[in-house]
Specification:
Blueprint: H1 2-6, H2 13-16, E1 24-25, E2 46-51, E3 57-60, H3 61-65, E4 70-77, E5 82-93, H4 94-101, E6 109-114, E7 119-123, H5 124-127, E8 133-138, E9 141-142, E10 152-154, E11 167-173, H6 180-183
Length: about 200
């Protein structure tokens, strides 16, 4: 049953070195989230950037789509132990958002705000990386609803719950604030190379 849903441990040495401890490869893209899949109206959708920034702003869907685009080829790893290698995403590099926001030196942490009040949190030093994007496309197609349509964060260096689906805002702050799963016992750092799944 587990193998059918999530995959199996790889025996290919070249691929095995890309699979973190305790993970299994899958060719599928399992759907895991809390709550229901939201209905999104792009005519009223927006993305808000605020907090410890000199230039807080809100983007409509059209404005977001007009920003410079980039692609990302990366592996992703879920805390529920599946890993999917070589995924392809397209969207806007987080560096573009940080540049527009003019993030203050006092900003050390970021809360990702998503639909239905969901949040997750990361240090700014983890978010501010070349391989982090706000993605609206997966595998050459618009995101499917259950995978975050119209927009999700993709933050490959942490377990995938830190890549919030249905994202609606980034709040920059001087202090860390635990997100939804972090308050329910998930590890705040979520480094998959160290199997940081749950808090002690």
């Amino acid at each position: 049953m587990f193998d059918r849903l999530f995959g199996t441990a790889t025996k290919d040495p070249a691929m095995a070195e890309r699979v973190p401890p305790g993970q299994y490869l899958t060719q599928k893209f399992p759907v895991l989230h809390y709550g229901s899949v939201p209905n999104v109206d792009l005519a009223t959708w927006d993305l808000r950037i605020w907090g410890e920034v000199d230039n807080p702003f809100t983007l409509t869907w059209e404005q977001f789509k007009a920003l410079p685009r980039r692609t990302l080829h990366t592996d992703i790893h879920c805390v529920t132990r599946w890993s999917k290698l070589g995924t392809d995403w397209e969207g806007v590099a987080i560096g573009e958002i940080l540049r527009l926001a003019q993030v203050r030196p006092t900003a050390k942490f970021v809360v990702e705000h998503a639909e239905q009040g969901y949040t997750t949190n990361v240090p700014l030093s983890v978010l501010d990386d070349d391989d982090v994007i706000l993605a609206d496309t997966f595998g050459g197609e618009p995101l499917e609803a259950e995978h975050g349509y119209p927009l999700r964060l993709v933050l490959p260096k942490r377990y995938f719950w830190k890549s919030a689906k249905w994202i609606r805002g980034l709040e920059f702050g001087a202090q860390d604030r635990l997100g939804f799963w972090e308050r329910y016992g998930y590890n705040n750092n979520a480094d998959f190379t160290k199997e940081e799944r749950y808090s002690d």
